[in-house]
Amino acid sequence: MVVGSFLNVVVWRVPRGESVVRPPSACPTCRARIVWYDNVPVVSWLVLRGRCRRCAARISVRYPVVELVTGLLFVGTALVVGWTLALPAFLYLVSISVALAAIDVDVHRLPDAIVLPSYAVAGVLLVLASWTPGEGVDTDALVRAAAGSGALFLLYLVLALIHPRGMGLGDLKLSGVLGLYLGWVGWGALAVGAFAAFLLGGLYGVVLMVAGRAGRKTQVPFGPWMLLGAVLGVVVGEPLAAWYIRIAV
Fold it and tell me: Which InterPro entries match (predicted)?
């Protein structure tokens, strides 16, 4: 939840081109600096009843929601991945997923300041995840990661060239990062993760149109569905792909 508290800062400041380090957190209404005891994840928001201590301005419920969701996702990631060298890599994926999803919903952008450095960070963490003491590095997993990144990037590039209005550059850049993770897990994870993004995004678009909240030309943020699809690919991609192959053969 502490990480989630920091992600709230990232979500607010990065799209505005501001530093996530300085100045210290302050109320956006009265600019009063937030003291440490008013910055305890979830608890402070509940104690203050969702208002600034100084000016009583409302504090969005999204702040404690992001903190709580991040904490739960960290616990879930530890349960799925286990206490292995792969855990830091996937905790990082969870962190950028929460931040990017919230930013894309807010401003329909996936900032380069988060996406581009993630290639290097994810690469280093996945190399660490591929290392087993006494056995060395699993080069097959790293080759799959590189191939997965290239394959997913190429897929999104083709889609962007065919239909530029339907695929943003941010989505294209993010695809390579997600391909790293999905490829590292396995080919089944890559296939399921890629397909799930379009399936979920398409279903969401249909729901919006049926509800009268969107038309055929309405721009819908696709980043959250890419990220959710990747999560499904990591968690259930391999067993789901194996099941499909069994029934198909």
Answer: Peptidase_A24A_bac, Prepilin_IV_endopep_pep, Prepilin_pept_A24_N, Prepilin_peptidase/N-MTase
Strand runs labelled E in the chain: 131-132, 136-137
**In Å, how far are 23, 43, 57, 105, 186 from 31, measured between CA atoms?**
11, 21, 11, 25, 48
Its domain, for residue 131, covers 84-249
Give the residue-averaged pLDDT of 124-128.
96
Taking alpha carbons only, the member of 111, 86, 91 closest to residue 101 is 111
pLDDT in tens, 173-194: 999 999 999 999 999 999 999 9
pTM above 0.85, yes or no: yes
**How far are the Cα atoms of 123, 128, 183, 220 from residue 136, in angstroms, in the given order?**
17, 10, 19, 44
Please report how many Cα atoms fall inside a 13 Å half-sphere around the Cα of residue 77, on the Cβ side.
20
Cα Rg, the chain, nearest whole Å: 20
63 and 88 co-located in one domain? no
Whether residue 96 sits in one domain with residue 63? no
